[in-house]
Amino acid sequence: MSDTDLLFTPATQAAARIRQKKISPVEYLDTVLKAAEKAAPTLNCFREVMAEEARRDAKRAEEAVMRGEPLGPLHGVPVSIKDLVDVKGVPTRHGSAIFDGNPPAVADDILVKRLRAAGAIIFAKATTPEFGNKGLTDGPSFGVTRNPWNLARTPGGSSGGGAAAVAAGLGPLSLGTDGAGSVRGPASCSGLVGLKPTLGVVPYDTTRDAFGNNIYAGPLSRTITDAAVMHSVMAGPSEKDPWALSSAGQRPLSPRLSGEDLSGVRIGYVERCANPRIATDVRANTRAALTAWEALGAEIEEVTETIDWIEYEGRVLYQAGFAVSFAQYLSQWQNQMDPVTLAFMQRGDKFTLADFRNAQFARTVLFRKIQSLFERYDFIVTPTNARTALDVTHDAANDDVIIDGVKCGITRQGWTSYQYPFNLTGHPAMAVPSGFGDDGLPTSVQIVGKYQAETDVLRLGALLERVRPWAQHRPEKFRAA
């Protein structure tokens, strides 16, 4: 197997070959590290590479194979971690100059612990914009992370470093977080699978507002199976997360999805949320995905009723949270913070307590509306983004998103409006590739399921993957505009 083929081997296949002693964890990691070093100046997708620690762990993984020890489902597989999540012995910088001098974390985050227990080799911290603040990945403290499909475009945000890495073959898996679409958006931009789980299925121990949480952790991968395995490794209760502690866990696979006949499965298609337009190529690829499911027997119905997607109220919750959480840093760090962070904080500071409480009430109304849709449908399907990846120079706070020559508002209004509603309602939502746009960049479709129905969401995605495969596509090394 060539180094390139090894880099683009799915995680589950690599783990199987490691168990069969056909791949050495040490040689596998070395191949990834060499590729990461070569790509670093171009993609800028890692904030730190822990080569020494990862080589130590890979050697131990190889020794465990040779001794015939029980091996986890990700044994010997290199995995990167978003720089909002603690990895023992490495600073967590949160994409910000404020934390450039942070001391190394004293312990792994619970999800990192679970990944290690499954045999994963944690080898890098992936870039994120400051505090995960936007749908692009750049910032004053580390520069610009670029999309391997086109270096002039963003890989999305805020899990853009991990998405760029996986798309470029720098580890088959990355752990992302999703506060308003930050796993699904990068998956859409980068031609990947990105799963945001149900609220409480995967713990998020580090959020400051555990009870009002809208932040999730999920996998970025090139295949559905890889996403499913990584998700299963991370799922489960945690004493520090009240939603995870009380979660009913995941539902078993619905019997109607056990085969490839989708007769009786109903899909509600939402073409637009708060966005005024959808790009022609994105619409065509989304409808092609719907047609593929329909050919397997699914009933497709467009959702035509009016739904308030609470873009304004979602913005109140998001920006007011920034204003309160990061006000403590302004006096010392304002000149070194991302201008987008500062703009969001300034806007958030103008909202009143009444605005904030009314936004919370609106979140409940939206949840109940989505629940009512699931009385009719097994799934809701939307595009993931309204167009392909934006230029890396796009100003997320002020610039209009342009679709087919028309200005459509800032990113959450014109580009990512399909994503944040399901952070607020808590339903599982997964981005899967739907094809390529007219500009040669990936497009994506979003599958939304019932609470705790991740297995069904993954299965519907797997059926699309079978009839419209995508993992065979690889970015040219690396294409410029």
Report on this structure.
The chain has 481 residues and is an alpha/beta fold. It has a single domain, classed as Amidase signature (AS) domain (Amidase signature (AS) enzymes, Alpha-Beta Complex). 37% of the residues lie in helices and 14% in strands. The strands form 3 sheets. The protein has an 11-stranded mixed beta sheet, sandwiched between helices. It has a two-stranded antiparallel sheet with strand order 4-5. Strand 14 (429-436) and strand 15 (442-448) form a beta hairpin. Helix 11 (311-325) crosses helix 14. The longest helix has 21 residues, at 353-373. It is globular, with a radius of gyration of 21 Å.
Total domains, how many? 1
Average of pLDDT: 97
* Estimated radius of gyration: 21 Å
CATH uppermost class? Alpha Beta
Biggest β-sheet description: 11 strands, mixed
For the record, what is the CATH homologous superfamily label? Amidase signature (AS) domain
Q: Tell me what portion of residues adopts beta-strand conformation.
A: 5-15%
Describe the strand arrangement of the main beta sheet, using strand numbers: 1-3-2-6-8-7-14-15-11-9-10
Give the low-confidence spans: none
Summary?
With 481 residues, the chain is of the alpha/beta class.
